[in-house]
Amino acid sequence: GGTLNKVGSFLMQAKHVGADTALARIVEMVRQAQNSKPAIGRLADRIASVFVPSVLIIAVLTCLAWYNFGPDPRVSYMLVTTMTVLIIACPCALGLATPIAIMVGVGKAAEHGILIRNGEALQRAGSLDTVVLDKTGTVTEGRPALTVVEPGSDFNEAGLLRLAAAIEQGSEHPLAEAVLQAARERDIVWPAVEDFAAVEGQGVHGCVEGSKVLFGNAKLMADNGIEPGRLVARAEALACDAQTPMFLAVDGRIAGLLAVSDPIKADSHEAIARLQAEGIRVVLLTGDNRATAEAVARTVGVDEVIAEVLPGEKADKVAMLQGEGCVVGMVGDGINDAPALAGADVGFAIGTGTDVAIESADVTLMRGSLHGVADAIAVSRATVRNIKQNLFGAFIYNVVGIPVAAGVLYLFGGPLLNPVIAGAAMALSSVTVVSNANRLRFFQPRVRGGGRP
């Protein structure tokens, strides 16, 4: 299933099953996004598709030239040169250039806690020019804590927190866990909730001890005709301090304000600065209110914020950026991030996140740090650079070797290339490619302690 029950027991009624459930719809969205990704053509395959026929044509021409115009014994010269061309042009190095580099690159990434699902993701990561970051659990710790309980005139702190815990006991949101944990720490016993319902992107409501209770953001209050009054200014101040304010109303009247804060990861600012130093555009994408999102963005050095996004809209925002011509990487950890992770050019899942997010992503960051994104991009660029070096070396080797094998030097008084030497040279080219690929084992994505990568 798609639900994790951490504490206590519950009574569940299944209103939708199978393909009609929210989880099944998310899985279907993920499948569609994954299937829509264009396959990356293998550069080596494209080269080989031209190289192999070209070599065969050169071998035939060499054969005909030596047979018709060569010295006696013509057949011997013809056989030696033709075989030498075919031996020295054996495309072993060309075939090894890409897979050996990808194998080493994926292994190097794994050393740094980066699990890459396939070679295509490794190649694409280096071409990213935009990275979209989810806020909760990605930029922040994902362990929010209650920081403010400000009751109205008719409530005290304990009474307000008791009602908030009662209504939140039916919610799966991380902010709900912060409220419930605070109530437990104060030994508050909360009553049962009836007719509980969650309003996407706004909050929750239900009946507690016969009273209708609403708990959520300002939009939830406005949609129900409730005026928060003096608490609006207090909520704005808390939001500017990177806290998430939530209003609680009872029977149509505002009862108080609670605020939750999610600590920012210690290395988020440094990791984001690394991405920006590489010329990568960083965007913060969150369902939180704009003031809170902008406060977090200022703290970590992000200039562009897309806030108050409903869970189902995250993939649309990623698609919008792709429509602008951006090559987009998405970093997230939650179930609601899964379609966006699958729809991005490269999806990065935080390893401490949900299984659905990890399954949807191309890359999993096992250490949970945003440095993993910068490291993955650095490894990708180093790997692609290594592949190009391998292909260039294999190509130059054949450009030089094939004419020599065909007997060009003989025309100017030089020797014919011995087929045994041609075989050794062919093997040496493969050794060169493998050795160059293994240089990646010594590559370090970044110098720890604030140095440049």
UniProtKB/TrEMBL annotation:
Xref: InterPro entries: ATPase_P-typ_cyto_dom_N, ATPase_P-typ_P_site, ATPase_P-typ_TM_dom_sf, HAD-like_sf, HAD_sf, P-typ_ATPase_IB, P_typ_ATPase, P_typ_ATPase_HD_dom
The entry's keywords: ATP-binding, Cell membrane, Copper, Copper transport, Hydrolase, Ion transport, Membrane, Metal-binding, Nucleotide-binding, Phosphoprotein, Translocase, Transmembrane, Transmembrane helix, Transport
N-terminal signal peptide: none
Transmembrane segments: 47-69, 75-98, 391-413, 419-438
UniProt EC number: 3.6.3.3, 3.6.3.4
Biological process (GO), any one: copper ion homeostasis
Major localization class: membrane
One GO CC annotation: plasma membrane
Keyword Nucleotide-binding among UniProt keywords: yes
Record's subcellular location: Cell membrane; Endomembrane system
Top EC group: hydrolase
Pfam families xref list: Hydrolase
One Gene Ontology molecular-function label: P-type divalent copper transporter activity
PANTHER family in alphabetical order: ATP7, ISOFORM B, COPPER-EXPORTING P-TYPE ATPASE
Name of the protein in question: Lead, cadmium, zinc and mercury transporting ATPase Copper-translocating P-type ATPase
Organism listed in the record: hydrothermal vent metagenome
Biological classification of the source: unclassified sequences, metagenomes, ecological metagenomes
